[in-house]
Amino acid sequence: MTILLQALSAASAQNVAPSSPPALSSGYRFVETGGEQLFANVCQGCHMADARGATGAGSYPSLVADKNLEAAGYPLTIVVNGQRGMPAFGYMMSDDQVAAVVNYLRTHFGNDYRDAVAAEDVKQVRR
Q1: How far apart are CA 39 and CA 106, in angstroms?
Q2: I need a surface site. Which of 8, 17, 88, 123 has the fewest CB within 10 A?
Q3: Hey, CA dihedral for 116, 83, 24, 109, is it positive or negative?
């Protein structure tokens, strides 16, 4: 706290505005738009940066070379509605965001499912 106050004091003494912090999601909606950004800021907290999952206080499945991602409707449904320990992110993400993160998962981490999903596909899952 003291260091922050000193930095702010020095910045105002030089008539220089302190740099603003990076944009983070606020409230109950995510602001990230790209699949990689969404994975990094939402998914990797449980599934880890390498998507290999983790076991500890809970069990977080690996998404690496995951055959469950082959049928695009499955990951769309899981992201929107949640399942077991995974929360439903549908009310926190737009249709475009859900499509972006699912497309990212399906084309990275040893997954090579190139049939991209679109926001229209997410709308069908939300019904």
Answers
A1: 12
A2: 17
A3: negative
Tokens of 84: 């077991």
Q: Is the pTM of this model over 0.70?
A: yes
Give the single-character DSSP code of 86.
B
Cα 116 off chain centre by:
17
Across the chain, what does the average pLDDT equal?
Answer: 84
Q: Dihedrals φ, ψ of 27, to 5°?
A: 70, -145
What is the DSSP code (8-state) at residue 69?
G
Residue pair 108/122 in contact (Cβ under 8 Å)? The answer is no
User: In this predicted structure, what is the pLDDT of residue 6?
Assistant: 47
Residues 6+ apart with CB under 8 A from 80: 88, 89, 90, 98, 122, 125, 126
Rounded CA gap, 30 and 94, in Å?
8
Tell how far CA 39 is from the center of its chain: 3
Bin 126: left if φ > 0, else alpha if -120 < ψ < 50, else beta. Answer: alpha
